[in-house]
Amino acid sequence: MFADFDTLEVDTGEARIFVRHGGSGPGLLLLHGFPETHAMWRDVAPSLARDFSVVCADLRGYGQSSCPPSATDHAPYGKRAMAADMAALMGDLGFQRFLVAGHDRGGRVAYRLALDHPDRVEKLAVLDIVPTAEVWDRADGRLALSFWPWSLLAQPEPLPETILAATAEAIVDNALSGWGSAADAFPPGVRQAYVDALRDPAHIHAICEEYRAAASLDRLHDHADREAGRRISCPVLALWSQHGALAEWYRDEDGPLGIWRNWADDASGGAMPGGHFFPEESPIETAATLDAFFSGR
Q1: Contacts (Cβ under 8 Å, ≥6 apart) of 196
Q2: Mind telling me the catalytic residues?
Q3: Residue 254's pLDDT is what?
Q4: CA 276 to CA 240: how far, in whole Å?
Q5: pLDDT tens per residue, range 126-169
């Protein structure tokens, strides 16, 4: 994986962020989701590296990045803090303005980055998400049953930490096989890497704190932006699974794109082949779609 990509760790002041980077051209930051790591981009990043300087980072608390101490309000694992990591990381690599794409949890960091650092983000792609406040404000039994990490991992410690520690393989297998993507999209080595990342107590706690922040602080930050009239000023590409829940759940809002148009001045997008993990299931289509958007072709 990641042939011709280099690795490094960047100290952002609060966290040490593990990075793989390669290619040349404008800076393009790729952010992963749960229960993945930067390895989710293994078949997308090399293609994009023909036109961009691609940076694949592990979010704080995930993969090989560090796990800063948390706080009672979960702020160290709020998307504002995680986005600040990425702004510092890209600045350290020499990119004062850059492009960013995020899938799942990484998409939440990515759009917070665009809201909090509008002068830094040139274009934004969000993959298989709508804003956090929109999810919680519309939460119902479908969310509780289908996207169980939202409620389970946000429970007070130590319950979710105990469950993750005891069932890492079952958690990963449920996600990779039960969220609409074909099981053969995940080679054994990649699946094992995701399992191993959920076995370290510090990372387990950090991931649960990130979900607790989403259920509380992140939601408040989204509401504050909406009430203040703050919008995403850069062009936004919203992509979602053609086999997933988003289009069906938000049909009354004209689908995910209708929701993103309430948050962004310039939003476009559509459905992608595959389930929730379509970047791993359909990497050729994903890379081509991102390349066309970010390059303006």
Answers
A1: none
A2: 104, 276
A3: 92
A4: 8
A5: 999 999 999 999 999 888 888 899 999 999 999 999 999 999 99
